[in-house]
Amino acid sequence: MLEEDEFMLVVNGEERLIKASADMPLLWALRQEVGLSGVKFGCGAGLCGACTVHLDGSPVRSCVLPLGSVGSSEVTTLEGIQDDPLAERLFDAWLEIDVMQCGYCQAGQIMSAHALLKDNPTPSNEEIDMAMEGNICRCGTYPRIREAIRIASEEEEA
Amino acid sequence: MATGQDASTLDRRAFLKVSALVGGGMALSLTMPGMARGADSDEVVELTDFVTIDHAGLITIAAKNPEIGQGVKTSLPMLIAEELDCAWDQVNVVQADFDPSRYERQRAGGSLAIRFEWLPMRQAGAAARQMLVAAAAETSGLPASELSTASGFVRHSASGRKWSYGELASAAARQPAPDLAKVELKDPKDFGIVGKPTVGVDSARVLRGEALFGIDTRMPGMLHAVLETAPAHGGKLKSADTSAAKAARGVVAVLKLDGIGGPDAMTDCVAVIATNHWYAEQARKLLTLEWDLGAAKGHSLDAYAKEAARLHDADKGAELRRDGDAPARLAEAAKVVRARYSYPFIAHATLEPQNCTALYKDGALEMWAPTQTPDRGVGMIEKLLGIPADRQTVHITRIGGGFGRRLFADFMVQAAALAKAMPGKPVQLLWNRAEDIKRDFYRPGGWHSFAAGLDDDGKLIAFTDHFSTFGSEGKPHHSASMQPIHFPAGLVEDLLYTMDVIDTVIPMGPLRAPGSNALAHAFQGFLDEVAEAAGKDLPTLMLELCAEDRVIGEDTNAWGTGWAFKTARARGVIEKVLKDSGWAKRGSGDGRGMGFGFYFSHQGYFAEVADVSVEGEDVKVHKLWVAADVGSHIVNPMGAEAQVTGAIVDGLAQAMGQRISFTDGVIEQENFDTFPLGRISATPEISVSWVKTDNPPSGLGEPALPPVVPALTNAIYAAGGKRIRDLPIQSWT
Ligand code: FES
Ligand code: FES
Predict the structure, then answer these.
(1) ipTM, 2 decimals?
(2) Among the listed residues B411, B33, B390, B384, the one whose alpha carbon sits nearest the alpha carbon of residue B215
């Protein structure tokens, strides 16, 4: 039986018992209670996408998602998609043209790009922009983000 | 990797810690987080401060400067590897700890790394190579002059014998360290690593979500701290009731800290230290603090703007430069163009908020700091907190963006003060986004009143600028100043620059291409107006001004890398970008137009053209062309182009919507809704051309940014939009 401030999260396929207040955003539970670094803090207000994770496969901003509302949904972070074939295509594309500069936003960028290509394997440029609009890259790596998503989606087509 | 170990071996090697190795010669231990030392260690031989080789041939190169996304953790080791003459895939790069006795300057700033390190890094690589050759000579009895190197081997071509660097490492470490000034360097035409597009050394690790950044620092028992500071700059704490915060969930301690050393160190604050950042944030809301905010009374952006307007109407600035008699020439000019330009304060807004982790134990301080200037933090901590520099260790972490913000070491001083108050406990200080925006060292705003005189032929004969900037006691802050040789000084016979300085309590600091990022807008925007009045376009006017081969300013050092402006290099990039963009055949009307901007900063020459559409208040940038001259070589073309495109995205965002405003010293922006950063949909296609000239290579973190601002505003005007004299283009307040 869980206490009022205990939560059984499913993170990257593993059950994790977290003891924390229900209003703690998932971000801080993942970073500091579970100890993951593939989810980043940028704004804390749903404005930058650095904290993007998947909740049952859909991208969410973990900085504005209270722990208490996660329930039994599966939480997936960058660490949890490492062996996924779509993610591998993205990583290859990301490295082929070396998308990142400082790299801080890139976990969130990958999580958003992954969600985009899962639903829409061959997005148009406009669809790429729309899906990635919520992910800020302060270093301005957008031209290469676009190109890498195109490379990954073309491989899908081929 | 060439050596073909399994993944676990590679991971282990990735943690080789150069700083753990001392002196020359054999070092038998290596350290890895989370692994026992010694049990499984290869022999690792340190040849020099920069180069370590293990017996399997894996070469570890120390990257000395902080990596903020500008790519130095890759480009500087590339220079070493080039002269070491090994294969790049034999190389593992590690970040060096702060250690000035080994690495001298360890800063990220001023686009200086390539400019300063082009030669020393090559010499460092060549020195290690020379030691390996000497070792092969000693082992084989062959004269060194008959030996050559390639791809991590020393060879004797006559006999066909060869030795890998790995097998020579121990003998090489016993060789005397060569005189760096005398080491033999490669002919640049033989470069195999420099000039090759190279993927960043940490890129794959970032994609694995590894804990590389300052904010990712983790230690058992680590505590999380937030600092509540005055709502207005210059505020002083009068009283504090911390009882409710102390009782809140997860809170370990609440500390009242007195300010030490000003805003670049620590102002009065109350720290809440908890077991999770979230608990600290929640508890801080329960603090009841009373502040004296008198110091900032009246320090409001509106008041500054009024003061600037008054100063400009009075037109009595201090003289910055006077050539001839510009006012007299203006009076007799056939045509006079006058305009006022302004730009706002803006924030750095690095995506990784300011943070630092510190542990104070037995009188020694250990820090994990995302800093552009570890030396500054150490010096301030020694002075203000009395912890001697030799009792401080700084691990330089990877950094989620710098842009000049992390040239300040305030977060290091604060983390050190917290750690000192909590001995034996690792403490991570993290600022939230609102604090990061509100407690910045801003790019200063400024105002310019220009006048230009044209003769009957449309030639620019007189030029004046009255500049109002910020500082104290009549002296501009270093980030708010203007060089007396600013373009077009020296190229217009009669010229007058005057300046006055408004006192401010708002902290200021360098932001990517400091000074230049603001001045480019004002000067190139105004010169676009001057060109129009003269019946030509801006690039034509610029080419006329730069028609003669001239050097403005001085090439002061032995390298010839002073700040001198060379007109021939300017012409080179201007002509190139006109060609690339099809400028001569550009259309106009129908809400579409092209604009041009040129700027010289950080030894880089950049000419840029923007192609935009304007519809009502909406601006769409279709394409940007950049022509750049940063000397004879581009060390890593992959990283270099990224710096340019990143600077373009940055500059466009600044121009479009960034503005910091304040009333009585209280900053009015708190997050990315009111302080907007560039987003993907606003990003144009960007084309970059390098104009290589026979000049020493210089850096790229900054100089691409300034000209994009006037290229954009001039394009908006060409497209039938407003003449934009005041930034930002769109108001977000
Ligand atoms: S940190 Fe969650 S959106 Fe910015
Ligand atoms: S790579 Fe630096 S914020 Fe995106």
Answers:
(1) 0.98
(2) B411
